[in-house]
Amino acid sequence: xxxxxxxxxxxxxxxxxxxxxxxxxxxxxxxxxxxxxxxxxxxxxxxxxxxxxxxxxxxxxxxxxxxxxxxxxxxxxxxxxxxxxxxxxxxxxxxxxxxxxxxxxxxxxxxxxxxxxxxxxxxxxxxxxxxxxxxxxxxxxxxxxxxxxxxxxxxxxxxxxxxxxxxxxxxxxxxxxxxxxxxxxxxxxxxxxxxxxxxxxxxxxxxxxxxxxxxxxxxxxxxxxxxxxxxxxxxxxxxxxxxxxxxxxxxxxxxxxxxxxxxxxxxxxx
Length: 270
Prior knowledge:
By secondary structure, this protein is an alpha/beta fold. It contains ten helices and 14 strands. The protein has two domains: 5-79 and 195-269, 3-Layer(aba) Sandwich (Rossmann fold); 84-192, Hypothetical Protein, Haloacid Dehalogenase-like Hydrolase, Chain: A, domain 2 (2-Layer Sandwich), CATH 3.30.1240.10. Strand 6 (100-104) and strand 7 form a beta hairpin. Helix 1 packs parallel to helix 10 and helix 3 runs antiparallel to helix 6 (162-175). Keywords: Hydrolase.
């Protein structure tokens, strides 16, 4: 049997509630790994929050975090960072549009100013109470820039302001200092320039010697598009956005119906 590289988004794909993997999904992944496959979770989350899901698999899954800006391989962790130019651009645009940005290292959240309660609640849904994440309020943009060497990615939440999000996306793309995507219609994902989940997937294909034709990728959101295009066996969830369904070669059941497990069980059975 050929070796496979299996990569799955987390929210809206691998889990139904952002945190917990069902026994059926865990068993399907374990069976694939026992047959020689390598398994990665691929997420926009910071590394510490990706571990919450990865640790539910035995053997433990590897991690692509921060939308491809961070990934693990052979005991090492690779980092790409947003950089001072991108951070300055985001702070300028969000200030002009009345939006709020959160920035992430592997285990710390940074922000400037005051984050509204609704934004804080939106961010915390990804962090179970069992995980302690440092949240650091910075008094100025200069203080934020001092942490630039550690900041891999960020997010702008706009749960009630889609017009401002659209303007923010256009303004940031025009400056061409970072990559802007989205995991949901309520946010903008801030990623280092020329980086997305596909970057990590392609680098891992080279490192493992497992080509696209043996790469299986699952996703549901816009920030999964590059990853799906890098995989020869690309799978959209039934709950995926239309663009993902149009891009993927296959479709499986929704995340709440163990779609990842159902596809893998059928695929390896055949």
